[in-house]
Design brief:
Elements: E1 4-12, E2 16-23, E3 26-34, E4 39-42, E5 48-50, H1 54-64, E6 69-78, E7 89-90, H2 93-100, H3 110-123, E8 128-133, H4 143-146, H5 152-158
Parallel strand pairs: 1-6, 6-8
Antiparallel strand pairs: 1-2, 2-3, 3-4, 4-5, 7-8
Helix pairs in contact: 1-3
Length: 171
């Protein structure tokens, strides 16, 4: 049996987890889990499965992956990476530590995204983890669009600007 490399893409919201499995740049599996309702649905199916927590979501997804597909990467959408974390980056210990410092700026998404990342790492220890940031889309906006109409000293002192919350979720 020929093995194929697969990439899991995770999109954690405040109360949901969406995702896809890609093989050779083709989407072969999709899912939507409602964390509050404790249900997961695959593709366009109307049948849902019960999932009690993030680990159950991950295990349920992994169980759906065909045996000839080896997951070599997992990508995680991060809503807010601040001013310095906007390029796609490997999920190193240092990157996770830096993101934990930003939780107060994105308390709805970031704690859940980091928790899911750590669990995926445990379930798939050989796969490489990556972070992709919504704020990256807004990095190169012209100053006129990026900055709010505030006194220059306020903008500079407090680093106030548009960071692009939910940027990639709407493309």
């Amino acid at each position: 049996m020929k093995h194929l490399n697969g990439t899991l893409v995770w999109n954690v919201g405040s109360s949901s987890v969406k995702g896809s499995l890609f093989v050779d740049q083709r989407e072969v599996l999709t899912w939507f889990a409602d964390v509050k309702e404790q249900k997961i649905v695959f593709g366009h199916s109307k049948k849902s499965l019960t999932v009690k927590n993030l680990l159950a979501i991950i295990n349920t997804v992994v169980a759906q992956i065909p045996k000839n597909i080896l997951i070599d990467r997992h990508l995680h959408r991060i809503v807010y990476g601040g001013a310095s974390m906007w390029r796609p980056m490997r999920g190193t210990t240092a990157a996770v530590h830096s993101l934990k410092k930003l939780v107060d700026r994105d308390p709805l998404h970031l704690p859940q995204a980091l928790a899911l990342y750590q669990l995926v790492k445990q379930v798939l220890p050989k796969a490489t983890g990556w972070f992709v940031f919504d704020s990256g889309i807004y990095q190169y906006l012209p100053p006129m669009v990026r900055e709010y109409a505030l006194p220059r000293w306020v903008v500079n002192r407090y680093q106030i600007r548009r960071f692009g919350f939910h940027g990639i979720a709407h493309w």
